[in-house]
Design brief:
By secondary structure, the chain is an alpha+beta fold. The protein folds into two domains: 36 residues; 153 residues, Sortase, Chain: A (Beta Barrel), CATH 2.40.260.10. Helices cover 29% and strands 33% of the residues. The chain has four helices and ten strands, in the order ααββββαββββαββ. Strands 1, 2, 3, 4, 5, 6, 7, 8, 9 and 10 form a ten-stranded mixed β-sheet that branches. A hairpin with a 3-residue loop joins β7 and β8. The longest helix has 34 residues. It is elongated.
């Protein structure tokens, strides 16, 4: 009887270990599958941009952002976080399909200093590492590069548009942790 109980416990332990490995492996495979095309998309976007130059905010009447279509997705530019060797294309349209594959513009415009974009930790894995003072670059499709400095970081349990609005921010980036469901909200200024 004791040997049977030991065998049941041993088999249960082995099954739990195998399940854990399958879950961890599928998470790794899913992450790599979802972001596999990002480097090629970034290269395509860069090849379509004019020469990169310093961007500045002027008194534009039209603050709409130029887009380029690649594989039926409209892109507004590229976001880069040099300290963490992260570079991603940014989709213009926020929807469930786009957010799985790359960060997306949530609202606003670079040119009106109210640009908000979001993504997941699959694409933007630096969420837990980023610090106040770090630099985030956004290059639009006209080749204008805007250099932002992180001035505040918040972690919230739930997402609400009211949480991310800030009159002091020129650029807000929020990143969903796909494991915990928490959101890291990064507030930036030019």
């Amino acid at each position: 009887m004791r040997k049977t109980l030991t065998n049941i416990i041993l088999c249960t332990g082995i099954i739990l270990i195998v399940i854990s490995l399958v879950i961890a492996g599928s998470s790794y495979i899913r992450r790599n599958y979802l972001i596999k095309d990002m480097p090629q998309t970034v290269e395509q976007l860069r090849s379509l941009m004019p020469e990169v130059h310093g961007g500045f905010i002027d008194d534009r009447f039209d603050t709409s952002m130029s887009t380029v279509v690649i594989d039926n997705t409209d892109y507004v530019g590229v976001v880069e976080v040099p300290q963490y060797k992260t570079i991603c294309p940014v989709s213009f349209h926020w929807n469930n399909e786009n957010i799985k594959n790359q960060p997306c513009r949530y609202s606003g415009s670079i040119y009106s200093s109210d640009f908000i974009m979001g993504g997941t930790d699959y694409q933007l894995g630096f969420a837990k590492l980023i610090n106040v003072g770090d630099e985030i670059r956004f290059t639009d499709m006209s080749g204008a590069m805007f250099n932002y400095t992180v001035y505040s970081i918040a972690v919230e349990k739930d997402f609400s548009p009211d949480l991310i609005i800030s009159e002091n921010s020129d650029f807000i980036l929020f990143i969903k942790d796909t494991r915990s469901g928490e959101y890291t909200i990064i507030y930036c200024q030019l």
